[in-house]
Write a structure and sequence with these properties.
This protein has 118 residues and is mainly alpha-helical. It is built from 7 helices and 2 strands; from the N terminus they run βααβααααα. It is 61% helix and 3% strand.
């Protein structure tokens, strides 16, 4: 990765540290996931939202810090890769983007039905 940054995983109490993270960059640093600034600048919220969707399918209750850190790292890498290779518009993780392409509902009432009410 050109201009990529990478770090070392620090697994102790990783879930608490992730909950306290104030930026996308902190997630990447805490989990030791490399990233390109240009990708994060464009898709940071999309990546974190997708990471949350992936984590929803994981059961981390009772997992050791090492296992939890490894799973979190894997889903962050997966989410990052989703947006490193395509645009946020292609994945549409946010409701507003999904609604933008959803079929428009029309409430059509035939004229004859309106006349029957008279």
């Amino acid at each position: 990765m050109t201009g990529a940054k990478s770090f070392t995983v620090l697994p102790s109490d990783i879930l608490a540290k992730l909950k306290a993270a104030a930026s996308a960059e902190e997630f990447f640093v805490l989990l030791g996931v490399g990233y390109e600034t240009r990708v994060l600048d464009v898709a940071r919220l999309h990546i974190l939202k997708r990471m949350g969707e992936y984590l929803a399918g994981e059961d981390l209750d009772g997992a050791s810090d090492i296992v939890a850190a490894a799973r979190c790292k894997a889903v962050l890498e997966r989410a990052y890769e989703d947006f490193a290779t395509s645009s946020p518009l292609e994945h549409r993780v946010f409701k507003v983007l999904k609604q933008a392409v959803a079929p428009k509902r029309t409430h059509f009432v035939p004229f004859e039905v309106l006349l029957k009410g008279r």
